[in-house]
TrEMBL record:
Segments crossing the lipid bilayer: none
Pfam families: TetR_N
DNA-binding region: 33-52
Molecular functions per Gene Ontology: DNA binding
Protein name: TetR family transcription regulatory protein
Domain of life the protein comes from: Bacteria
PROSITE patterns cross-referenced by the UniProt entry: HTH_TETR_1, HTH_TETR_2
Stretches of the chain forming a coiled coil according to its record: none
Residues in HTH tetR-type domain copies: 10-70
Keywords: DNA-binding, Transcription, Transcription regulation
């Protein structure tokens, strides 16, 4: 059997991380096996441990990738001309397409319940916490007040409304209540949704 080049090994590793990032968001951290992850990446189970020490390590790396992707997307939206407010972010985040696109959507929402069940020593918990803090920082940077305490409280409230509404909308998808959750949160955040 031919040996795989270092470049191919790196491409394989990146593919495993990308696929895992999507599958963990779609099915949960414990809803997908190493076999499932490797098959989705087009690789065999046997190659997994050549890339990662454990599924826990991959969960942390893949979750970090998902959170970085979300952060990059949020940053791009919030830096558009005349978009220094929350409107564009809120309208995207609380959209039916984001609700229905779990595998490519917000990892904070998708992984919340799974991460809550993980023990505190699991690397994915620290990755997740850092992602939540980054989301808060982004929202604070878009606040319309100079007062630090008000800006922080505003960002906390916005995060709760965004994440909570999206979680409930996903859990009730297919029922009109799902759209009501999205609309109510938009109205609370924007005042005119």
């Amino acid at each position: 059997m031919a040996r795989v080049s270092k470049q191919q090994m790196e491409r394989n590793r990146e593919e495993i991380i990308q696929v895992s990032s999507q599958l963990f968001r779609e099915r949960g951290l414990n809803g997908v096996s190493v076999n499932d992850l490797m098959a989705a990446a087009g690789l065999t189970h046997g190659g997994f441990y050549g890339h990662f020490a454990s599924k826990d390590e991959l969960a942390a790396i893949a979750s970090n990738k998902a959170l970085e992707d979300s952060s990059t997307h949020w940053q791009a939206i919030s830096q558009q001309p005349d978009q220094r407010n929350l409107r564009t972010l809120v309208e995207h985040y609380l959209s039916a397409s984001h609700r229905d696109g779990v595998k490519d959507g917000c990892a904070i929402t998708a992984l919340a319940s799974d991460v809550a069940r993980e023990s505190e020593d699991k690397p994915v918990r620290e990755v997740y916490l850092n992602g939540v803090k980054a989301m808060l920082d982004r929202l604070e940077s878009l606040a319309d007040t100079e007062d630090d305490e008000q800006r922080r409280q505003q960002a906390l409230t916005q995060t709760v409304l965004l994440v909570g509404a999206l979680m409930l909308a996903r859990a009730t998808a297919g029922d009109p209540l799902s759209d009501e959750f999205l609309a109510a949160a938009k109205k609370a955040l924007l005042g005119d949704a």
